[in-house]
Amino acid sequence: MRILIVEDDLEAAEAMARGLTEAGHACTRGADGEEGLLAARDGEFDVMIVDRMMPKMNGVQLVETLRREGDRTPVLFLSALGEVGDRVDGLQAGADDYLVKPYAFAELIARIEALARRRETGSVQTLLKVGELEMDLIARTVHRSGKDIDLQPREFQLLEFMMRHAGQSVTRTMLLEKVWHYHFDPQTNVIDVHISRLRSKIDKGFDRPMLQTVRGAGYRLDA
């Protein structure tokens, strides 16, 4: 992917670019909001990673300007501002996702890849398939190798999110925000309980488990 990084912290930007380059992506950097705006206008990018607080032009102003100009490149905001109001402001400005600093690099990779896939599809999927596991979003049914799997509504939402991020490590924070819509960790075992129930339903009776625990990172659904 071609990624534009707009970050005024030189050390942070270089570390991010190094990691993304090692992951196979091509990176361009803007050192502040104005440089980021010029770079976005001059080049074509698959994803932009934009810091919120920058000199000359902050991230919100940058994204608002690009959206007014018709630029629909997916934008991921990075910010130390993590309150609900801060996130809402960023998303309402036109960003597609919001990640709070400090962050796990694996989560950054997962989020930008998800944004790129969303742009490539250009439409809403109604049938998800990961290996022998299939989900019909219209009929609200799930099958594995032709066997019906009966899920409760929250289990269905959880599995849908995992299937959309198949092969990626999904953190507890991502699940809390995207499935439970919590913007903080309520220090409850709700995720562990639901993951356990979901695992017993989609893996029990089959030779190979698909829902795996990634130590220190979260969970992953593998085909």
Would you mind describing this structure in some detail?
- The protein is an alpha/beta fold and 223 residues long.
- It folds into two domains: 2-121, Rossmann fold (3-Layer(aba) Sandwich); 127-221, Arc Repressor Mutant, subunit A (Orthogonal Bundle).
- It has helices at 10-22, 33-42, 59-68, 84-92, 105-121, 153-164, 172-178, 190-203; strands spanning 2-6, 26-30, 47-51, 75-79, 97-100, 127-130, 133-136, 141-144, 147-148, 211-214, 218-221.
- It has a five-stranded parallel sheet, with helices on both faces. A four-stranded antiparallel sheet has the order 6-7-8-9, covered by helices on one side.
- Strand 8 and strand 9 (147-148) form a beta hairpin.
- It starts with a strand and ends with a strand.
Q: Look at the structure and give the CATH class of the largest domain.
A: Alpha Beta
Order of helices and strands: EHEHEHEHEHEEEEHHHEE
- Assigned CATH superfamily of the largest domain: Response regulator
**For the report, how would you describe the main beta sheet?**
5 strands, parallel
Q: What is the CATH fold-level name of the largest domain?
A: Rossmann fold
- Number of helical stretches of at least 4 residues: 8
**Rough shape?**
elongated
Low-confidence stretches: none
Number of strands: 11
User: End-to-end span in angstroms?
Assistant: 24 Å
Strand and helix map with partners:
Layout: E1 2-6, H1 10-22, E2 26-30, H2 33-42, E3 47-51, H3 59-68, E4 75-79, H4 84-92, E5 97-100, H5 105-121, E6 127-130, E7 133-136, E8 141-144, E9 147-148, H6 153-164, H7 172-178, H8 190-203, E10 211-214, E11 218-221
Helix pairs in contact: 2-3, 6-8
